[in-house]
Amino acid sequence: MIHKFKFENSNIVMDIHSGSIHLVDDVTYAIAEEAGSLSKEEVINKYAEKFTTSELEEAYDELMELKENGMIYTEDQYETLVPAFLKREPVVKAICLHVAHDCNLKCKYCFAGEGEYHGHRGLMSLEVAKKSIDFIIENSKHRKNIEVDFFGGEPLMNWEVVKGTVEYAREREKETGKNFRFTMTTNGVLLNDEIIDYLNENMYNVVLSLDGRKEVNDLMRPTANGKSSYDVILPKFKRLVEKRGNKQYYIRGTFTHNNLDFMEDVKHVNDQGFNEVSVEPVVAPNEMDYAIKPDDIAPLCAEYEKLAKYMLEKTRKGEGFNFFHFMIDLEGGPCIHKRLAGCGSGTEYLAVTPEGDLFPCHQFVGLDEFKMGTVFEGVQNHEMRCKFEKCNVYSKEECKSCWAKFYCSGGCAANSYNFHGDIHHVYEIGCELQKKRLECAIGLKAELS
């Protein structure tokens, strides 16, 4: 299977199963698909009016040489690995610690219902937090590195428990030889100098929620009393990033049907001095006025390409910045198991509620049928874990013939469930946008190579 596309001055041909990516001339680009199944004579006859015989012979021979070297027209070798993949010992690598099911903003698109997650507001006790640390130490088995994401709601509303959790984990590190990496996702309202200094010292990564331009952000992310959150958080985010040095962070925004020109929000965030930016499409029921609609796909794809070309121009001027969805590792990248199964929700990654209940990820929290156990008793719903283990690019019919399957790993299970009631389907709008983002990411690499 191959996929070909153009970006700026580059003709790009991808071989899906080997992972090879080729920059080719116009002749090779034109015949790339047919050369995989037609003879040289058939290709020459088909394209005789467009190119000379010598040009076609040279291009065809080059493609056949690549084929002999296993770099194009390769067969799928990975589906046979799935049975062994399913027999692996369950290892939990990361937990999403819901220290607060409460929030001080009233974001209109919030999947967590202002932090309540289909339930009631509440804060995690230090006892539950400590037990969560014990749980992941035990269930990470042989793995040394462990990740804990402080999440909500708004995690800063339970600040003392956050600090107590970090302190307890550092103590357990000495006993067990484990290495904890902490992250936090925050709306920034409660940030002050003391908290900023603590986060910069103790958090491996900090995710800062801001949607972009003031009018865009405040439309969807007002404070509890309906006022501007932009004016409150922007100076705090600037201070945090200024003090953070070279440590990881990114500004994480959401675009909706109301701002299909989201490139302007990316530019605005970058203009404020932030060089690590992520702006993602909202995922919402079709009846919501801000939901991304099928008719929005074409303009959004055009906007991604526009953004990629803007970033190319900025990079060539020495003013480059990172856009999360255009960051791609073509040299190493994820292992094949990760490419088959994705984020690890329900298997390697679990969410913990304030009460200590376990769910496959933060987006399933509050859906009782997905409860997997507790941090006190461990994973008990092994049938649910098995269901997520079997969720991969070969369990989804739509993925089997898709050129992007080893880059997106089948997409988000929660989105599939929310739109189709089954984690073994795909969220079609998400698929189309993901494919365009991948083309832009690879196109940028090609132009800058």
Question: Can you put this structure into words, describing what you see?
Answer:
This protein has 449 residues and is of the alpha/beta class. Among the domains are: 2-75, no CATH class; 89-326, Alpha-Beta Barrel (TIM Barrel). Helices cover 41% and strands 16% of the residues. It has helices at residues 26-35, 40-46, 53-68, 82-86, 126-139, 159-176, 193-202, 214-220, 230-244, 263-271, 297-316, 336-341, 382-389, 397-400, 405-408, 413-420, 428-448; strands at residues 2-7, 10-15, 21-24, 94-98, 100-101, 122-123, 145-151, 179-186, 205-209, 248-255, 276-281, 322-323, 349-352, 357-359, 373-374, 378-379. The strands form three sheets. It has an eleven-stranded mixed β-sheet with strand order 12-11-10-9-8-7-4-13-14-15-16, covered by helices on one side. Strands 1-2-3 form a three-stranded antiparallel β-sheet. Strands 5-6 form a two-stranded antiparallel sheet. Strand 1 and strand 2 (10-15) form a beta hairpin. Helix 1 (26-35) packs across helix 3 (53-68), helix 5 (126-139) runs parallel beside helix 6 and helix 7 (193-202) crosses helix 9 (230-244). The longest helix is centred in the last third of the chain and has 21 residues, at 428-448. The protein is globular. The mean pLDDT is 94. Pfam families: Radical_SAM. It comes from Candidatus Cellulosilyticum pullistercoris. GO terms for molecular function: iron-sulfur cluster binding; metal ion binding; oxidoreductase activity.
